[in-house]
């Protein structure tokens, strides 16, 4: 087998092995609890065993110190020949051992069994050390030995006791600790499983909810929130997410339904008019020239309205920028609101020949998208011009960061003011007029993306009409790096107060903007048709 085949087989084996040992989170938590308790129990058991062992040997050492051998008795026994030979054990009625050691390492057992002589014992006999306590072996058994010098002689006497009882006690203690520790580990594993089940129950509910949503696409599912812990925060976040998704889906469905409803009217009118024209051509009976012109004019108007509606839908369907508020303003360009408003006034004046548009514009610089901001201002002005009576006046003012557009039309009832910025909403009194009902929605969206606010209200003087107010954060002077007259929205060669250039072919005495088509507009800045929201309808 080639090395490459061997590596492939080894990698496959490792993958299969890793997959085989993978266990669910509940099992991993139980195993972790068991291992943690096992380590803790083992550490405690070892500490307990060593402490007991030290205490037992200390007690045995104290007993050896309490066992004293008189020097005269040792000397008398040696002189009387009562020292047992090395190969014959001496009588030992108490289980203790007494052994005499000289400076040469020769030993003589007085009582008990012969013990192994250590260098420490010889050092005591030579008077190099005053006392030693150590472990030794004798006939295969363990002993605890205490060696002390015999005064007036070159001898040392070792008193020893067997460690059998201590070793047996330690073995019994080790067995008990092992059984108790094992029971504790098993209990910890069981408790870990129970705790894992209880702790992961909210996660199981969340999992079932996610699976249910993935299976049924039912965004109305909500998870009960209990407490204020991490699981509760996760449940709240999930509920907020599903709520936002449900709201987004509802808005999407409403937008599709409203768009279909709004598209039906111009499409039906277009189909009817085109059918009449085609039928007249096919039947060989041409329509009167005046009727034909009216039909063609109606087709052109409906096509313009349809194009305006599609443009508005594209504008509203365009995803917002990466952020709103302060971040969006920091990423936008610096534009003069007074400049944008001046150009919008110049564009709208030709669309209402019988309406006077006055403008009082103070410098105010904001951060916004220039094209979108100008389109929003045009929407407001178109709306005001459309509903102003013949010979009426529309007042436009920029003062203190506020743009105010006041008309003298019929006004908006108080009950309809909360709905004027809804998509496709049109006032009942304006539904007979052309328009898409999206202009004010575009205005609200643009202003809020720039960090501002917009609303409609009754005029402060109590007169007729409606006043639209747009408030945008900014300053009366541009930032230091954007001097007046050089903003991105300034026309070429113009300053803040420079009027827009006259379109080519327009006579010099024609007011600025008169080169544009004076036909009706849709209020969204791109073609005929009335204003945004349609009075706002």
TrEMBL record:
Catalysed reaction equations from the record: ATP + protein L-histidine = ADP + protein N-phospho-L-histidine
Subcellular location field: Cell membrane
Any one Pfam family match given in the protein's UniProt record, by short name: HisKA
Segments of this protein annotated with the region Disordered: 455-537
Domain of life: Bacteria
Compositional bias segments (type: Pro residues): 475-511
Comp. bias (Low complexity): 512-521
Domain (HAMP): residue spans on this chain: 197-250
EC number of this enzyme: 2.7.13.3
InterPro entries per UniProt: HAMP_dom, HATPase_C_sf, HATPase_dom, His_kinase_dom, HisK_dim/P_dom, HisK_dim/P_sf, Sig_transdc_His_kin-like_C, TCS_sensor_his_kinase
Bilayer-crossing regions: 29-52, 173-196
Keyword set includes Membrane: yes
PANTHER family from the UniProt entry: SENSOR HISTIDINE KINASE TRCS (PTHR45436:SF5), SENSOR HISTIDINE KINASE YKOH (PTHR45436)
Full protein name: histidine kinase
Native source species: Streptomyces cacaoi
């Amino acid at each position: 087998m080639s090395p490459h085949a061997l590596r492939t087989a080894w990698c496959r084996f490792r993958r299969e092995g890793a997959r085989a040992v993978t266990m669910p989170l509940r099992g991993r938590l139980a195993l972790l609890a068991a291992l943690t308790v096992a380590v803790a129990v083992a550490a405690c058991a070892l500490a307990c065993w060593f402490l007991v062992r030290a205490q037992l040997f200390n007690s045995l050492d104290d007993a050896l110190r309490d066992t004293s051998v008189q020097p005269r008795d040792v000397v008398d026994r040696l002189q009387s020949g009562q020292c047992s030979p090395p190969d014959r054990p001496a009588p030992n009625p108490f289980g203790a051992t007494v052994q005499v050691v000289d400076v040469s390492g020769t030993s003589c057992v007085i009582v008990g069994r012969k013990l192994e002589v250590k260098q420490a014992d010889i050092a005591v006999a030579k008077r190099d050390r005053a006392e030693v306590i150590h472990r030794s072996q004798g006939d295969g058994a363990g002993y605890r030995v205490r060696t002390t010098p015999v005064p007036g002689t070159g001898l040392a006497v070792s008193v020893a006791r067997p460690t059998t009882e201590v070793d047996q006690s330690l073995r019994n203690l080790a067995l008990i600790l092992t059984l108790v520790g094992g029971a504790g580990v098993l209990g910890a594993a069981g408790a870990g499983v129970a705790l894992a089940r209880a702790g992961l129950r909210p996660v199981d509910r969340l999992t079932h909810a996610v699976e249910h949503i993935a299976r049924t696409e039912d965004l109305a599912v909500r998870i009960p929130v209990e407490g204020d812990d991490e699981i509760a925060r996760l449940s709240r976040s999930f509920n907020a997410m599903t709520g936002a998704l449900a709201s987004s889906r509802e808005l999407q469905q409403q937008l599709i339904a409203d768009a279909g409803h709004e598209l039906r009217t111009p499409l039906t009118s277009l189909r009817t008019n085109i059918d009449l024209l085609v039928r007249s051509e096919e039947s060989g009976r041409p329509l009167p020239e005046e009727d034909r012109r009216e039909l063609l004019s109606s087709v052109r108007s409906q096509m313009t309205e349809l194009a305006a509606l599609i443009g508005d839908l594209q504008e509203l369907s365009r995803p917002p920028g990466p952020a709103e508020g302060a971040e969006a303003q920091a990423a936008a360009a610096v534009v003069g609101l007074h400049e944008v408003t001046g150009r919008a006034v110049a564009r709208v004046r030709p669309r209402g020949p019988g309406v006077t548009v006055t403008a009082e514009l103070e410098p105010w610089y904001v951060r916004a998208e220039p094209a979108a901001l100008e389109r929003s201002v045009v929407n407001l002005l178109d709306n005001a011009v459309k509903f102003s009576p013949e010979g009426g006046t529309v007042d436009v003012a920029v003062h203190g960061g506020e743009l105010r557009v006041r008309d003298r039309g019929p006004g908006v009832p108080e009950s309809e003011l909360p709905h004027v910025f809804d998509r496709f909403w049109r006032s009942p009194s304006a539904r007979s007029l052309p328009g898409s009902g999206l202009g004010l929605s575009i205005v609200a969206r643009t202003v809020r993306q720039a960090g501002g606010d917009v609303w409609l209200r009754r005029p402060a003087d109590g007169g007729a009409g409606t006043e639209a107010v747009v408030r945008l954060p900014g300053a009366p002077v541009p930032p230091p790096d954007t001097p007046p007259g050089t903003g991105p929205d300034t026309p070429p060669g113009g300053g803040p107060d420079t009027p827009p250039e006259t379109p080519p072919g327009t006579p010099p005495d024609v007011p600025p903007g008169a080169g544009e088509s004076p036909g009706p507009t849709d209020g969204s800045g791109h073609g005929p048709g009335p204003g945004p929201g349609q009075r706002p309808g």
